[in-house]
Amino acid sequence: MYELRNWILQEEVKTTNATVDEIKATWKTPGVSLLSDGWSDMRNRSLINFLVNNQHGTIFLKKVDASDCIKNAQKLFELLDGVIEEIGEDVVIQVVTDNASAYKAAGTLLMEKRKSLYWTPCAAHCIDLMLEKIGDLTQQKNALIKAKKVSNFI
Length: 154
Known about the structure:
Pfam families: DUF659. This protein is of the alpha/beta class. The chain has helices spanning about 1-25, 75-85, 100-115, 125-135, 140-154, and strands spanning about 30-40, 45-55, 55-65, 90-95, 120. It has 5 helices and 5 strands.
């Protein structure tokens, strides 16, 4: 049974690597977006997943422990700038991050350094922040409390 699992895994790795190589070959035209997704693990470390996206697909690039720089704009800038260098400065046309103040400042620094690059806040994160603010309004807050009571009752 072990030999079968080993063989299947090797075939899947080979297929996945071929797919990744095909997508990477399309990166130069018209360019790619660098996506960052921050999260915390069970040990409360701040981690960032970096993904590269264009119309041909999305590739997971790497995960970084950013616990020491998550609230520091200069360190975030250096981290993002290093990832851009790794991918290729001429290939990255957009960087998408969440909307936290350190990310905003790092995005501004990136755009100052790289004139052809755009920083964009993540739309899902922006919508989440808007919904939280709407939920804080008195009328909506009361409606949410009542809805939760109904949901708990059911």
